[in-house]
Amino acid sequence: MARPSDTKTRIQAVARELFARQGIQQTSLRQISERLGITKPALYYHFSSRDDLVRSIIQPMIDDVERFVAGREPGDARELLEDYFDLVWRHREVIAMMVRELTTLSYLDLGERMFAWRRRLIALLLGDELTVAEQIRATVGLGGMSDCAVEYAHLALDEVKPVAVEAAAAALGLP
């Protein structure tokens, strides 16, 4: 018999995949439980609702990004871009899920948090006193890397990362 934590992890993995492919609202808890071969009550044992399940999938990404932006100091911009790409790549399924269904941003008040993270990353990369043009280039660079992690998730990391980081560095005007 599977341990509860194993079942919980399996539920999250199947839900993440179905949410990313079909959308959150189009994925029923019944589909998830049937795919796993468990009963709906067994699923409810681990997650009280679909919202609870969605939060449990999104929260690790939030925690990782919060640690990343809080724990960084200004330094080597390319290294920061590379590390940020690795972070985004690790959470590409969750990002795809959020992009597919933008209402996901309302979970855990994510929309404003994401803008705050981006502002912090831009300040780490380029400083605090930026022109509007520099801010726009930084937004394009960071957003483009996130988009690449989702759009090219089917490719190998070593195929996507160098090109995405180089393009972000060019957008930012880094040497």
Query: Helix and strand string, N-terminal first?
Result: HHHHHHHHH
Give the tally of β-strands: 0
User: Any idea what the radius of gyration is?
Assistant: 18 Å
The overall number of domains is: 2
List the main descriptive attributes of the protein structure presented here.
mainly alpha, 2 domains, 9 helices, elongated
Write up this protein.
With 175 residues, the protein is an all-alpha fold. It has 2 domains: 1-48, Arc Repressor Mutant, subunit A, CATH 1.10.10; 57-172. The chain is 75% helix and 0% strand. The protein is built from 9 helices and no strands. The protein has helices at 4-22, 29-36, 40-46, 50-70, 77-90, 92-100, 110-126, 132-151, 157-172. Helix 6 (92-100) crosses helix 8 (132-151). The longest helix has 21 residues, at 50-70. It is elongated, with a radius of gyration of 18 Å. 26% of the residues are buried. The mean pLDDT is 87.
Short description:
This protein is an all-alpha fold and 175 residues long. The protein has nine helices and no strands.
Give the helices and strands, then pairings.
Layout: H1 4-22, H2 29-36, H3 40-46, H4 50-70, H5 77-90, H6 92-100, H7 110-126, H8 132-151, H9 157-172
Helix pairs in contact: 1-2, 1-6, 4-7, 5-8, 5-9, 6-8, 7-8, 8-9
